[in-house]
Specification:
By secondary structure, this protein is α/β, with parallel strands linked by helices. The chain has 24 helices and 16 strands.
Length: about 500
C-alpha cells in the first residue's frame, strides 16, 4: 500500500504529526529501549558526551557542542538526523516543508483555504531535513533567514509588500528538521542577535513584513572555546538562549585513541600486506598525549585527533615506499620511519613562543622521542629505574637487562641504519649488537623467523635506550647511528676544541 498523497488521505490514515523535538525524543527512547547504537564510530564519549546529548534530546533542548578542534563535534551533529523519522509528509512544492495540518507560509495557507483536503502532499526523507551552515564573517541575515527577492517580484508582478516576494534563507528551508551552525563565534555579533527570536520564540521576521512565521526546529551549534578562536565571540544573550552546553574532549584513554586512528587512517594499501606492530600505534597516540601536556604547545589551541591519523598514514607511506623499491611483499614500519611522520605532526600543533624558538621539527621529534620512551616501558623494564646502584653492586649487576647491549657500545662499536635499507642488511646491522636480539625476543615474545617484526622491535629497543640517555644517537642525511653515550660526548667536545683552535 502506497503512502497518502493528499491531506485528506493523510487524515484518514490516522497519521499524527509530531514536533521535531518530540519526534527525536520518541526515537531516542525507542533506541535506548532496544539498546541500539546511537552514534556509531564515535569513540571515547560513552560515559561523558553521549549521555549529555541524550539528556538534552530527552529534555527537548537546543544544543551547543563546545570543544577544541578535532573532537568529532561536526561528526556528531551530522549523525543527529538518524533520530528523525525516515519520512514525514509536507505540502508538495513548499519551500519550508509546511506541516499539512498546520501550514504557515502564505502559499500553503492559500492552497489549503482554496482546495482543503485535496491539496497534494509529498514525503521528505530524514537526510533532507538537515541544514548546516559554516559561520564565516560574510554570512548575512539574508543567508540565514531570508530577504526580498526582486527577481521573483518582477517575474510574478508582485508588489514588494506582498509576502510572495520573500526568498527564504537556509533556516526556514530547514523547517521541521535540524539546523546546525558550525564555529558559531565566527558569526558577526549583529547576525547572532538575529538568531534571538529563532532560539526563544521559534519564529522569524523578514525585512519590514508585519508577519511572524513560526518554525519547528532543533538547533545545534558547534564552537571552539572563545579564548582560543580570537576571531569573534559568542554573545552572552545568545548563549543564554541555548538550553544545553556540552563540553567535548580528546580521548582520555590511549586505547580509545588507537581505535579512533585505526578507524580513520588509510593504512590498507593496494597489493601488499600491511603489518603494524601494536607498539607503533601506541607511539603515534602517545606523541599526541605528550603534545597535549607539552609546555611548548599552545594548549588553548588543542591537539587534534587528525594529527595521529596523518602521522600514521605518513609512517605507513614511508614503509610502503621502501617495500615497493625493495620488492618486499610485506609493509612493516621501522623506528627510522618515524621522522617521516613529522609532516603530519608539525602542521597540526600550534606552538607558544618558547616552542617557536625551538622550531616545529625539533619539538615534533622531542614528542616522538618521549612517546618512544613511554611506550617502551610497557614492554621492557624501565632503563632509568636501575641507574642507582646498591652498595657493593657492580655495573654489570646494575644493568642486568641492558648490560650486554650498553657494554657493546662502550667497546667502541656502533650501529648505522637507514630507512631505505633492505630487510637483510637492516637485520644484520642490528644483530651485531650483543644481547639485543635475545632481549627483544624475550620481552616482545617474537619468533626468530619473523625478521620483519623482530628487526623493527630491535631498533625500537635501541631508540628507547637512547631516549633514556643510555646510548647516543646521531641523525645525518637520513642515516641514523647509535653509539656509546660517553664517547660521543667527548667526541663532540673534541670537535668543538678543534674548531676553536
Amino acid at each position: 500500500m502506497g503512502r497518502p498523497s493528499t491531506i485528506g488521505e493523510l487524515r484518514r490514515s490516522g497519521y499524527n504529526v509530531q514536533a521535531v523535538k518530540d519526534e527525536m525524543r520518541s526515537n531516542l527512547i525507542r533506541k535506548l529501549q532496544n539498546r541500539e547504537p546511537l552514534f556509531p564510530g564515535i569513540i571515547g564519549y560513552n560515559q561523558t558526551v553521549i549521555p549529555a546529548i541524550q539528556n538534552a534530546i530527552l529534555a527537548r533542548h537546543d544544543i551547543l557542542l563546545l570543544g577544541l578542534r578535532g573532537q568529532a563535534k561536526s561528526r556528531i551533529v551530522r549523525m543527529l538526523p538518524s533520530l528523525l523519522d525516515e519520512y514525514i509528509p509536507y505540502i508538495k512544492g513548499c519551500e519550508i516543508n509546511d506541516d499539512p495540518y498546520r501550514p504557515v507560509c502564505k502559499r500553503c495557507t492559500d492552497l489549503v483555504r482554496q482546495h482543503g483536503d485535496e491539496v497534494e502532499i509529498d514525503w521528505l526523507h530524514r537526510e533532507r531535513r538537515f541544514g548546516e551552515k559554516l559561520a564565516t564573517p560574510d554570512v548575512t541575515i539574508a543567508d540565514l533567514i531570508g530577504d526580498i527577492d526582486p527577481i521573483k517580484a518582477a517575474s510574478q508582478r508582485l508588489h514588494y509588500s506582498h509576502e510572495g516576494v520573500i526568498h527564504f534563507g537556509i533556516i526556514p528551508r530547514t523547517n521541521r528538521g535540524i539546523f546546525a551552525i558550525n564555529e558559531l563565534p565566527d558569526l558577526q555579533p549583529r547576525i547572532q542577535v538575529g538568531l534571538f527570536n529563532i532560539m526563544e520564540e521559534k519564529d522569524i521576521q523578514i525585512r519590514g513584513f508585519n508577519v511572524r512565521i513560526p518554525l519547528d526546529l532543533m538547533i545545534v551549534f558547534t564552537a571552539n572555546p572563545e579564548d582560543y578562536t580570537n576571531r569573534g565571540n559568542l554573545i552572552t544573550p545568545l548563549k543564554d538562549r541555548i538550553d544545553s552546553q556540552i563540553i567535548t574532549h580528546y580521548p582520555r584513554a590511549i586505547e580509545d585513541a588507537i581505535k579512533i586512528t585505526e578507524q580513520e587512517a588509510w593504512v590498507q594499501r593496494d597489493g601488499r600486506e600491511i603489518i603494524i606492530p601494536f607498539y607503533f600505534r601506541e607511539i603515534i597516540e602517545q606523541a599526541a598525549f605528550e603534545a597535549r601536556k607539552s609546555e611548548y604547545v599552545d594548549q588553548k589551541s588543542g591537539v587534534s585527533a587528525r594529527l595521529t591519523i596523518s602521522a600514521m598514514e605518513n609512517l605507513i607511506s614511508n614503509a610502503e615506499r621502501r617495500a615497493v623499491r625493495a620488492g618486499d611483499r610485506y609493509v612493516v614500519p621501522r623506528i627510522c620511519d618515524l621522522p617521516f611522520a613529522l609532516p603530519g605532526i608539525t602542521g597540526k600543533i600550534e606552538l607558544v613562543f618558547e616552542g617557536e624558538q625551538e622550531g616545529a621539527v625539533k619539538v615534533g621529534k622531542a614528542l616522538i622521542g618521549k612517546a618512544v620512551r613511554e611506550v617502551f616501558k610497557r614492554y621492557f623494564p624501565d632503563p632509568l629505574q636501575r641507574r642507582v646502584k646498591r652498595q657493593g653492586e657492580t655495573r654489570q649487576q646494575d644493568d642486568s637487562e641492558y648490560g650486554k647491549i650498553i657494554g657493546w657500545f662502550e667497546s667502541g662499536n656502533q650501529v648505522e641504519i637507514a630507512d631505505d635499507m633492505s630487510l637483510d642488511r637492516y637485520f644484520e646491522e642490528l644483530d651485531k649488537v650483543k644481547g639485543l636480539r635475545e632481549l627483544t625476543k624475550k620481552q616482545m615474545k617474537l619468533s626468530e623467523s619473523n625478521k620483519y617484526e623482530l628487526g623493527s622491535a630491535m631498533e625500537f629497543a635501541l631508540d628507547a635506550l637512547h631516549q633514556s640517555s643510555r646510548i647516543a644517537k646521531d641523525e645525518v642525511d637520513r642515516k641514523t647511528s647509535y653509539k656509546d653515550l660517553v664517547g660521543s660526548i667527548f667526541s663532540a667536545k673534541g670537535k668543538g676544541m678543534e674548531e676553536e683552535s
